[in-house]
Amino acid sequence: MSDLPIYLLERVFDAPRELVWKTWTDPALLPRWYGPRVETIIHRLELKPGGLWLVEMKWGGKSNYQRVEYTEVTPPARLVWLHSSSDADWNIIASPMMANWPRVLLTTVTFENEGARTKVRLTWVPHQASEAEIACFAAAIDGMGKGWNAGMELLAKLLVELQA
Fold first, then answer.
1. CA geometry: angle 116, 156, 25, nearest 5 deg
2. What does the pLDDT average to over 36-56?
């Protein structure tokens, strides 16, 4: 099989690394930027390898569930997790939005000091995916930035507010 397609998001925030890390790992702060334009409800957040982050996104009377299993937690430098759509009982399911979307995405987020600022780098790669899932992911890469970038805008505003 050829190299897997990778979605890459890089963003530099005007905030110290420990604070940026906190916005990605604190259940009180995460819903303020994760899932723009929806109500984000965190049902569980266990910040450790094998720990689960169970999140529900509600809008228009519907809920969309995501199940994240952390594989690496290295404060304040690196988070690695397996990201999936799930049902209301947190069982991994095919995406309700796209039939051939990968069932699991390997997500890696790094937090690097850049002077007083912090560079966040996120990658999404299909994990143990079928050819159809890989093709679906590759075709969708150009559109993925829309949701992530909206979240990053909210995160930048949150970081300003937290430092005020």
1. 85
2. 95
**Distance from first CA to last CA of the chain, Å, rounded?**
50
3-state secondary structure of 19: helix
Domain coordinates in residue numbering, the chain? 7-163
Angle formed at CA 149 by CA 51 and CA 162, multiple of 5 degrees? 70
For residue 128, the surrounding DSSP H or E stretch is: none
Asked if residue 109 lies in contact with residue 124, where contact means CB atoms within 8 angstroms, the answer is: no
Q: How large is the average pLDDT for residues 12-41?
A: 95
d(CA 135, CA 76) in angstroms, rounded, equals 34
**Structure tokens, 58:** 């509600």
Write out 42-55 in H/E/C secondary structure. EEEECCCCCCEEEE
**Residue 131 corresponds to which tokens in the numbers above?**
């050819």
Q: What's the pTM value of the predicted model, to 2 decimals?
A: 0.94
Please give the CATH number for the structural domain made up of 7-163.
3.30.530.20
What does the DSSP 8-state code read for residue 30? G
Provide the residue type at 18 as one letter.
E
Digit-coded pLDDT (tens) for 4-20: 999 999 999 999 999 99
Rounded CA-CA distance 33/35 in Å is 6
